[in-house]
């Protein structure tokens, strides 16, 4: 698993009170009972804590934790100063 | 004007749910209220403020009671309401998985809404900028969300309403539910009130207007309705929810009818923003309307659960009206001596406690009544709960803005 995957899992556990045991690479946000509004909230927190701006339509509740972690990683890399 | 024609049919109370400073659940709340001891205490959330005492629900774990998602996405007033509503529905022996949800209404009285969320998020915006504001802010704070969440939780797809008549909101909700059942709009209504207004800004606001007790050294003695030394109310939080049905429907499904809502009266003082009309004309009209609608004479009233806030003005004005219309007969209590003033939830919590009073033939005492105000010429129950058969009870609720709601609750 990537470093970003671990950070995202920590965020879900610490800020969204998800049980760590519930989370796996293929777990979707829907599996965690996180609807579109929760996802918007998660993306706001990611922006605040990770400094990465993920637009609302770039992720959906059906995405897996791995998919969103990879997306954040890609955006972080792209936004990093050369 | 007075109601004309025959009295409308009473409505059955088949379920009771309570989450209050006296306890979580109707049984714990009832025991706490009958014990007559106020749980008011210093509140760390209010530290450093001119008034730092409150009555909060002891040991309420949002995650335990409403689950992880709701613990994060709902303001506390909604969490308390969902908890009380679930208890009331279970108590009524109803199953939301099988009922016809389109015939089930929800009416919740709420005076403030998610004010703690509002304050927290406003502070974040000032300190960290707009990007730090939660996407959940609006759905957490708007006052209709307790009713909305209860509907989602219970699959109740009928009329979904919020009543906002300040501290009469919970009683207004139950009165509105009565009307929805009588006019056939619903077969079941889950109705009551919810409030969680113990926040620094709200408490300061009430303190600034002189409404709160300053008996800060002995918080448990601060709420003392009808006592000569009362000096204001203690802010509280909680929720009271009832399940109401037409009695024939309740009997047909062999439900236990715990009591009846027999009458409802509403009025406005049209007098002052915060002070009650000293002559009590508005309260008198609401009381008369409620009794006439229930086809009950003032002499038949055994018990009054008074609004009884513990403020000098309210208690004096209310006592005057009760004495004038009902005389010396009824045994009067104010359960706010224990629960504090739960604002928009108060009317519903007190209606639920009145149902329990009628059912148990036991009138809870008014906490902290040591020296009855000589101007309060009423039979106030104090010290220990009083055993008395209560066939007819009245629950009074009055709100800032001069909004009054009175419920008549009778034995089944």
From TrEMBL, chain A:
Domain Carrier: 1-76
One Pfam family here: PP-binding
Domain of life: Bacteria
InterPro entries: ACP-like_sf (IPR036736), PP-bd_ACP (IPR009081)
Protein's UniProt name: Acyl carrier protein
Organism: Streptomyces paludis
Automatic annotation (TrEMBL), chain B:
Active-site residues annotated for this sequence: 167 (for beta-ketoacyl synthase activity)
NCBIfam families reported in the protein's UniProt record: PRK07314.1
The name this protein goes by in its record: 3-oxoacyl-[acyl-carrier-protein] synthase 2
PANTHER family given in the database record: BETA KETOACYL-ACYL CARRIER PROTEIN SYNTHASE, POLYKETIDE SYNTHASE-RELATED
Range of residues in the leader sequence: none
PROSITE patterns hit by this protein: KS3_1, KS3_2
Domain Ketosynthase family 3 (KS3) as annotated: residue spans: 8-411
Family: Belongs to the thiolase-like superfamily. Beta-ketoacyl-ACP synthases family.
Keywords: Acyltransferase, Fatty acid biosynthesis, Fatty acid metabolism, Lipid biosynthesis, Lipid metabolism, Transferase
Pathway the protein takes part in: Lipid metabolism; fatty acid biosynthesis
Gene3D superfamilies linked to this entry: 3.40.47.10
InterPro entries per UniProt: 3-oxoacyl-ACP_synth-2, Beta-ketoacyl_synthase, Ketoacyl_synth_AS, Ketoacyl_synth_C, Ketoacyl_synth_N, PKS_Beta-ketoAc_synthase_dom, Thiolase-like
Annotated Pfam families: ketoacyl-synt, Ketoacyl-synt_C
Enzyme class: transferase
GO process terms (BP): fatty acid elongation
Function: Involved in the type II fatty acid elongation cycle. Catalyzes the elongation of a wide range of acyl-ACP by the addition of two carbons from malonyl-ACP to an acyl acceptor. Can efficiently catalyze the conversion of palmitoleoyl-ACP (cis-hexadec-9-enoyl-ACP) to cis-vaccenoyl-ACP (cis-octadec-11-enoyl-ACP), an essential step in the thermal regulation of fatty acid composition.
Catalyzed reaction equations: (9Z)-hexadecenoyl-[ACP] + malonyl-[ACP] + H(+) = 3-oxo-(11Z)-octadecenoyl-[ACP] + holo-[ACP] + CO2; a fatty acyl-[ACP] + malonyl-[ACP] + H(+) = a 3-oxoacyl-[ACP] + holo-[ACP] + CO2
Top-level division of the source organism's lineage: Bacteria
EC number: 2.3.1.179
GO molecular function: 3-oxoacyl-[acyl-carrier-protein] synthase activity
Taxonomic lineage from the root: Bacteria, Bacillati, Actinomycetota, Actinomycetes, Kitasatosporales
């Amino acid at each position: 698993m990537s470093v970003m995957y671990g950070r995202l899992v920590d965020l879900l556990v610490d800020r969204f009170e998800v049980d760590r045991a519930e989370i796996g690479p293929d777990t979707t946000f829907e599996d965690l009972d996180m609807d579109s509004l929760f996802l918007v909230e998660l993306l706001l927190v990611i922006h605040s804590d990770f400094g990465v701006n993920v637009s609302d339509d770039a992720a959906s509740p059906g995405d897996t934790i791995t998919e969103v972690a990879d997306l954040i990683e890609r955006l972080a890399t792209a936004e990093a100063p050369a | 004007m007075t109601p004309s024609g025959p009295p409308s049919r009473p409505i059955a109370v088949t379920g009771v749910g309570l989450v209050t400073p006296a306890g979580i659940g109707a049984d714990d709340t009832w025991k706490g209220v009958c014990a007559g001891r106020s749980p008011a205490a210093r509140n760390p959330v209010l530290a450093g403020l001119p008034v730092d005492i409150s009555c909060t629900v002891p040991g309420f774990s949002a995650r335990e009671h409403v689950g992880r998602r709701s613990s994060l996405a709902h303001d506390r007033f909604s969490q308390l309401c969902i908890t009380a509503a679930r208890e009331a529905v279970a108590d009524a022996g109803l199953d939301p998985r099988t009922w016809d949800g389109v015939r089930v209404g929800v009416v919740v009285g709420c005076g403030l809404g998610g004010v703690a969320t509002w304050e927290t998020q406003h502070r974040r915006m000032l300190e960290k900028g707009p990007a730090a504001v939660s996407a959940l802010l609006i759905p957490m704070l708007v006052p209709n969300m307790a009713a909305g969440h209860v509907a989602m939780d219970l699959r109740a797809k009928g009329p979904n309403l919020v009543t906002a008549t300040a501290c009469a909101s919970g009683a207004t909700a139950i009165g509105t539910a009565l009307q929805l059942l009588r006019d056939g709009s619903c077969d079941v209504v889950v109705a009551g009130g919810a409030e969680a207004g113990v926040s620094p800004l709200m408490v300061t606001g009430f303190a600034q207007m002189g409404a709160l007790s300053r008996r800060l050294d002995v918080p448990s003695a601060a709420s003392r309705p009808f006592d000569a030394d009362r000096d204001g109310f203690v802010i509280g939080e909680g929720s009271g929810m009832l399940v109401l049905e037409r009695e024939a429907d309740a009997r047909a499904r062999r439900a236990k009818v715990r009591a009846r809502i027999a009458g409802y009266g509403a009025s406005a003082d049209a007098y002052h923003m915060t002070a009650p009309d000293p002559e009590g004309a508005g309260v008198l009209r609401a009381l008369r309307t409620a009794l006439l609608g229930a086809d009950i004479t003032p002499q038949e009233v055994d018990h009054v659960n008074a609004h009884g806030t513990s403020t000098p003005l309210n208690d004096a004005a209310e006592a005057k009206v009760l004495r004038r219309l009902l005389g010396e007969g009824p045994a009067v209590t104010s359960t706010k001596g224990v629960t504090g003033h739960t604002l928009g939830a108060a009317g519903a919590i007190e209606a639920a406690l009145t149902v329990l009073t009628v059912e148990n033939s036991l009138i809870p005492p008014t906490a902290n009544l040591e020296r009855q105000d000589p101007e309060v010429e009423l039979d106030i129950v104090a010290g220990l709960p009083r055993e008395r058969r209560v066939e007819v009870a009245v629950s009074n609720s009055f709100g800032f803005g001069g909004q009054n709601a009175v419920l008549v609750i009778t034995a089944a």
